[in-house]
């Protein structure tokens, strides 16, 4: 027993000694001595470099910081303007990093505005890391400094760069003016890299799909050159060639299928594919478009849960005037999400694109203008938007007001909706309800459900926990119960002339839960009596929102106010 006991004691002592060594190792952290101060200072210096520098690398750091809320474009629910930063050395096709930036001097947004800052780069060989310097070419910096004020300071250069890039936004519209696909139109903006480059060809997935046997499957391509701030056309090795203003731009050896050289496009150019298909080029600067009536937007999560925490913001309000390539049309909409904000975000992004695509058909567009009725367009837009949405467990209401002009100071408005986000108008003092509530408590909705052959019980006010029978998204529920629908209610067309003193209010149910239509109209009229200025529409939207807050609404609230009154009409720039 003696030798065995001795062995056990030895093992225990060794274990204790090992534990003491480990304890001392973590206590004194000896690995910190492996990094020299010079190494640490070099890391710190790299992280503190400014976002943009010139070739000399001597740009001053910013002294003021304006913190931008993350993803405020849709959580805040309103986004009339977006600002995109892209590396001037690339075409900005790949999203590398998106984050909140705290070192940019940005102009203060107005109420209801949203600022979205995207840092995007597309290096052919490597991606940028967070903190890596984005370097502007010296030629671009020199050009900016040339047009800068005399007392322009280096520490304001980045702010000027931001405005310079945002002011160069361009909208390209292609219109087929001859050939089998005559009347076809396609529009794209220079600030939408997800849709660039665009291709012209005979087979899918060409963006401008030409039904012409002389057009190659992939015939030509158009892209936005960020360095030159120009649209460029290139022949993709087509068999029958490409002409720009009657001059060939394809490769000299047509049989080699080699690409031609990029050629700059200007407004009014004519692109000929083969011999018969001709495409007219329309290029406009987005900053040239002005809204011919007042627009104000405001939103707030509002509701307080137990414990004082706000509800998640699931409303999204949006507008676009004019629609790309359609100077006479614009849309204004509100989506109120449930189960999350995913469906509302998706629908608000899709509607402008879908409606613009439908109206790009010259026959459908002319039918709307001649008949003064867009019912078919709105119905098709809701059908296509629902088909493109992939939200199985999230849904949303959708109220869309389509406004167009005949070019003679007359406007027309027509609304379509599913759910309970309401639109009302006042024209010549007459109140007009432009939408229909689709709650299960409404008689008309219960009657529609009864016609499906599965009527609701008298005391039944919800289906699967939802008080709405019509919405976008919620694909899983629609698979379970056919009584759910995405078929919209479509209003009559309202004619608005110069003397009609008209206005419109679109709002989610957070407003209408506490404010009647009559009270809302009274508030608008009171504001008109007190205030006649450029931002009257914004003040009116804020007034309605604040009134709902005062009355302690219990739901997210979003408001869009349109002022067609000629006394209040003003112009404002809208960049989308």
From TrEMBL:
Q: Which GO terms describe its biological process?
A: signal transduction
Q: Where are the transmembrane segments?
A: 6-28
Question: Which InterPro entries does the record cross-reference, listed alphabetically?
Answer: FHA_dom, PP2C, PP2C_BS, PPM-type-like_dom_sf, PPM-type_phosphatase-like_dom, SMAD_FHA_dom_sf
> Listed GO molecular functions?
kinase activity; metal ion binding; protein serine/threonine phosphatase activity
Which residue range or ranges hold the PPM-type phosphatase domain?
A: 294-564
Q: Tell me yes or no: is Acyltransferase among this UniProt entry's keywords.
A: no
Which E.C. number(s) belong to this protein?
3.1.3.16
**Domain named FHA: residues:** 198-249
CDD domains from the UniProt entry: FHA_PP2C70-like, PP2Cc
Read off the PANTHER family from this record.
Answer: PROTEIN PHOSPHATASE 2C, PROTEIN PHOSPHATASE 2C-RELATED
The entry's protein name is: protein-serine/threonine phosphatase
- Species name for this entry? Glycine max
Gene responsible for this protein: KAPP1
């Amino acid at each position: 027993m003696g030798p065995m006991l001795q062995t056990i004691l030895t093992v225990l002592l060794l274990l204790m000694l090992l534990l003491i060594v480990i304890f001392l190792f973590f206590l004194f952290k000896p690995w910190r001595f492996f990094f020299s101060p010079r190494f640490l200072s070099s890391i710190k210096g790299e992280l503190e470099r400014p976002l943009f520098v010139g070739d000399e690398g001597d740009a001053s750091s910013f002294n003021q910081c304006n913190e931008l809320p993350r993803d405020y474009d849709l959580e805040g629910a309103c986004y009339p303007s977006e600002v995109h930063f892209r590396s001037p050395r690339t075409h900005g096709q790949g999203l590398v990093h998106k984050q909140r930036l705290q070192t940019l001097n940005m102009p203060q947004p107005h109420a209801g505005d949203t600022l979205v800052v995207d840092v995007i780069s597309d290096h052919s060989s490597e991606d940028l890391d967070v903190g890596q310097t984005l370097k502007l070419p010296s030629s671009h910096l020199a050009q900016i400094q040339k047009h800068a004020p005399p007392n322009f300071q280096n520490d304001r250069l980045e702010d000027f760069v931001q405005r310079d890039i945002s002011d160069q936004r361009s909208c390209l519209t292609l219109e087929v003016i001859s050939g089998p696909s005559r009347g076809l139109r396609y529009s794209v903006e220079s600030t939408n890299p997800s849709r660039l480059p665009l291709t012209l060809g005979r087979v899918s997935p060409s963006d401008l799909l030409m039904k012409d046997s002389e057009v190659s499957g992939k015939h030509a391509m158009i892209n936005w050159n960020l360095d030159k701030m120009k649209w460029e056309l290139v022949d993709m090795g087509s068999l029958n060639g490409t002409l720009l203003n009657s001059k060939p731009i394809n490769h000299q050896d047509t049989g080699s299928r080699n690409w031609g050289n990029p050629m700059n496009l200007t407004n009014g150019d004519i692109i000929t594919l083969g011999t018969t298909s001709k495409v007219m080029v329309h290029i406009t600067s987005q900053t040239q478009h002005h809204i011919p009536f007042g627009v104000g937007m405001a939103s707030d999560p509002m509701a307080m849960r137990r414990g004082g925490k706000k509800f998640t913001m699931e409303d999204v309000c949006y507008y676009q005037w004019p629609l790309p390539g359609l100077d006479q049309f614009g849309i204004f909409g509100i989506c109120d999400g449930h189960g999350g904000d995913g469906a509302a975000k998706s629908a608000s992004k899709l509607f402008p694109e879908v409606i613009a695509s439908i109206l790009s058909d010259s026959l459908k567009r002319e039918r709307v203008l001649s008949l003064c009725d867009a019912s078919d367009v709105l119905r098709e837009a809701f059908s296509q938007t629902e088909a493109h949405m992939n939200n199985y467990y999230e849904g949303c209401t959708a109220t869309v007001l389509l406004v167009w002009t005949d070019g003679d100071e007359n406007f027309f408005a027509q609304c379509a909706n599913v759910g309970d986000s309401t639109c009302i108008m006042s024209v010549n003092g007459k109140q007009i309800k432009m939408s229909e509530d689709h709650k299960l408590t409404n008689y008309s909705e219960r009657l529609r459900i009864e016609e499906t052959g599965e009527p609701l019980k008298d005391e039944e006010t919800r289906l699967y926990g939802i008080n709405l029978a019509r919405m976008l998204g919620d694909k899983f529920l629609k698979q379970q119960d056919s009584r759910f629908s995405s078929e919209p209610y479509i209003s009559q067309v309202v004619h608005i002339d110069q003397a009609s003193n008209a206005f419109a209010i679109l709002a989610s149910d957070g407003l209408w839960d506490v404010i009647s239509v009559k009270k809302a109209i009274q508030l608008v009229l009171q504001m008109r009596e007190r205030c006649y200025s450029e931002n009257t529409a914004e003040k009116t939207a804020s007034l309605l929102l604040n009134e709902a807050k005062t009355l302690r609404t219990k739901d997210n609230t979003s408001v869009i106010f349109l002022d067609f009154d000629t006394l209040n009409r003003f112009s404002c720039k809208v960049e989308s």
